[in-house]
Amino acid sequence: MNVHVTNPHGYCMGVISAIDMAKATKKQFPDRPVVVLGMLVHNREVVELLAKQGIETLQDPEKSLEALLLSVDPKAIVIFTAHGHDRKLEKIARERGIEFRDATCVKVSKNMDIIEAALKDGHDVLYIGKRNHPETTAALSLGKRVFLLDKDIPFDYEKVKDPSPLVVNQTTLSFLELAHIHADITAHLPDARVLDEICSATRLRQQAVLDIPEDVEAIFIVGSPESANTEKLAEVARLSHPRARVIKIKTVADIDSRPYSSSSKVAVASGASTPLETTENVIKLLKSI
Ligand code: SF4
Q1: Which of 68, 165, 172, 237 has the fewest beta carbons closer than 10 A?
Q2: Marked catalytic residue, from 135, 197, 226, 231
């Protein structure tokens, strides 16, 4: 089978750095519990890999991160995830005497710094993101004048009192949808100061999907359902290649090879938190058909 592989694939630098930090922490404290508050990066295989190395992921859909942190053994070292976190979690950790490490990606940290500076200058901030995504939660925790603009929820512009608010966005949005959202904002707030903070890892992967040949039958998007940047790759693929089937898979085990033959033409793209080996296994199987 003819398989077009998009590049880059494999971990982005933020994911590499978060995994390295978790491993280094366990190495430094082999006799103490090391726990990650939520998924370190949005990939289940990474969570399993960490578990094998004695690094536990604390997750419970019934409980908030705050509640989970309140139940952590005070001897544990807590790691905050790559996507950022609500600032109050650091306060709770300090109050409980819990040692913590912050694996927030530098691109996310930069975004938070920009928001803080705008608030300090007395401006409102419009944050374009996905409700309940950890990066969005982190941004909203910075102040009451940070307003979430989620494209799936109607936005009330009346509540923005600042005529020139700062507009920033979650690092893992689709650049195709961001352009439309920016146009809508400036139609309502012509003096808004608009920044595009999609990270380079997300942007390059989306551009690579746009560049997939038009005549592919199917595009396989490899990554976990929790991964925002993987989901956006699928959205870009659907918009840019309307004739291709866009198939989201977690691993090679999810592939149904029956519709394909040796003359089929397909493409493979993967999210920034998908292990290289996982994508390579997918490519290997497809090439063998
Ligand atoms: S996708 Fe972008 S923001 Fe997220 S961890 Fe990777 S580099 Fe950082």
Answers
A1: 68
A2: 135
Confirm or reject: Cβ of 14 under 6 Å from ligand 1. yes
* Residue 190 CB partners (closer than 8 Å, separation 6+): none
Domain that holds residue 26: 13-105
**Percentage of the chain exceeding pLDDT 90:** 100
**pLDDT tens, residue by residue, 168-177:** 999 999 999 9
HEC profile for 16-49? HHHHHHHHHHHHHCCCCCEEEECCCCCCHHHHHH
| Site of tokens 């799936």 | 152
Question: In this predicted model, what pLDDT tens digit does every residue of 129-166 receive, in sequence order?
Answer: 999 999 999 999 999 999 999 999 999 999 999 999 99
CATH of the domain at 237: 3.40.1010.20
**Domain ends where: 178, 194, 210?**
194
d(CA 232, CA 272): 11
